[in-house]
Write a structure and sequence with these properties.
With 133 residues, the chain is α/β, with parallel strands linked by helices. Helices cover 24% and strands 34% of the residues. It has four helices and ten strands; from the N terminus they run H-E-H-E-H-E-H-E-E-E-E-E-E-E. It is elongated and about 45 Å long.
């Protein structure tokens, strides 16, 4: 929630904070709304909504229908509805972190070793099994 609030303050234009559950909404503080109430209760509509923790297909579908720009923080598997703006996935071997895959929009996914050095390889993360990322 702290990162989402900092992000909202850093964005230009009017920004709304939206939690996908009651816990996320409470953590975001006063003025945050729940996703199920977002379209009807945000008047006038914001330029951007910072949305925290969508997890279900229903929540992702609801986000896609919102009439304003959406930035998702801590979303789980969007089924390809939105591109990752910032992505971090630790890489481990035998329970030890060996590096990470990172994306900073609009750049590509990149792989880094645990010491922070760039590992020169292409990381195609467009799907995971039958699910699009």
């Amino acid at each position: 929630a702290e990162f989402a609030c900092k992000l909202a303050r850093a964005l230009d234009g009017s920004v709304a904070l939206v939690g996908c559950g009651s816990g996320a909404s409470r953590a975001l503080g006063d003025g945050a709304v729940q996703l199920r109430d977002a379209e009807g209760s945000l008047s006038p509509p914001p330029d951007i909504a910072v949305v925290v923790s969508p997890t279900t297909d229903e929540q992702w579908d609801a986000l896609a229908k919102l009439p304003f720009k959406v930035v998702v923080v801590n979303g789980l598997l969007s089924n390809g509805l939105f591109p990752h703006a910032y992505f971090y996935k630790p890489l481990t071997a035998f329970s030890v972190q060996t590096g990470a895959v990172v994306r900073r929009f609009p750049g590509p996914y990149e792989c880094y070793a645990v010491d922070g050095s760039l590992v020169e390889l292409e990381v195609p993360l467009s799907s995971q099994g039958r699910r699009a990322l």
